[in-house]
Design goal:
The chain is mostly helical and 158 residues long. The protein is 50% helix and 0% strand.
Length: 158
């Protein structure tokens, strides 16, 4: 008695392939390893930390299995010296442009009503949500507040 082999449907990437990124890479004669190195070099040149990027990650971006978040999108633009739209990336990262983990980390302790207001304020200011939060944090540090809203001299902020 022969066992029947059930054919499982091929998995498809969750997003369409990023043909622009691949086209730009191939036009330069770069391998996926070259892109990973260029991203690492761009991060080093701009003091943006050490990215954990390799050829496999670049391949996943090109095939649509993953999308680069704002950090990697910025580094890709720097490495290729192109605007995001030329690399198939969103011009301004939106909630969709962030990885779920990054977005969750940014909004974990924020009540939904406040989150909506912050998102609206960021959109009015023409900033990404992450940039808005960073500017708000910088403003708090500039007046000497800690995370609890307490000034360095012990008084509470309003």
């Amino acid at each position: 008695m022969a066992e029947s082999v059930s054919a499982t449907p091929a998995r498809r990437p969750p997003w369409p392939p990023n043909t622009r990124l691949k086209r730009e890479r191939l036009q330069r004669g770069w391998t996926q390893d070259d892109v990973a190195q260029a991203v690492a070099d761009a991060a080093g040149a701009s003091d943006m930390g050490t990215p954990a990027v390799d050829a496999n990650m670049v391949s996943r971006w090109e095939q649509g299995w993953n999308r680069p978040g704002p950090y990697y999108a910025r580094l890709l633009c720097m490495a290729f010296e192109l605007r995001p739209k030329h690399l198939g990336l969103p011009e301004r990262p939106t909630i969709d442009g962030y990885s779920r983990r990054t977005f969750r980390r940014m909004t974990l302790r924020v009540p939904p009503t406040i989150h909506r207001r912050v998102l609206q304020a960021a959109q009015v200011a023409g900033l990404s949500l992450q940039d808005w939060w960073m500017r708000a944090a910088e403003a708090r540090l500039a007046v000497g507040e800690d995370d609890a809203g307490t000034r360095a001299n012990g008084s509470r902020s309003s």
